[in-house]
Specification:
By secondary structure, the protein is of the alpha+beta class. It contains two helices and four strands; from the N terminus they run ααββββ. It has a four-stranded antiparallel sheet with strand order 1-2-3-4. A hairpin with a 4-residue loop joins β2 and β3. The longest helix has about 50 residues. The protein is elongated, with a radius of gyration of 20 Å. It starts with a helix and ends with a strand.
Length: about 100
């Protein structure tokens, strides 16, 4: 019975620590990643298909560090992702309209 109480208290402490880490650090990081992928997909799409520049040249336009964001091109779609695709966004180029965010982060 004593072992069950120790296990329950330990589990509660781990749960509280996890909630604290989420609230203080991870929640903001996830929100930042969603904004960064959506903004990045749209900006790189416009740079590639409206301005007609190369992908590497487009990555240099960002003022913030986006080294954690991976950009890929599939036809006239740009996909930006972080954490191996866990958080991602896509922007499509539509002739006459430019680039449109179709799948936000």
């Amino acid at each position: 019975m004593k072992l069950v109480k120790i296990f329950a208290v330990g589990l509660a402490i781990i749960g509280l620590a996890g909630a604290l880490v989420w609230q203080v650090w991870l929640k903001d990081q996830v929100a930042y990643a969603k904004v960064a992928t959506a903004y990045g997909a749209k900006m790189v799409c416009s740079c590639r298909f409206v301005a007609g520049r190369e992908m590497e040249s487009c990555k240099g336009d960002f003022t913030a560090d986006v080294s954690a964001v991976t950009f890929s091109e599939d036809g006239e779609t740009i996909r930006a992702s972080v954490l191996g695709g866990v958080i991602s966004a896509e922007a499509d180029h539509e002739e006459g309209l430019g680039c449109v965010l179709v799948k936000p982060g």
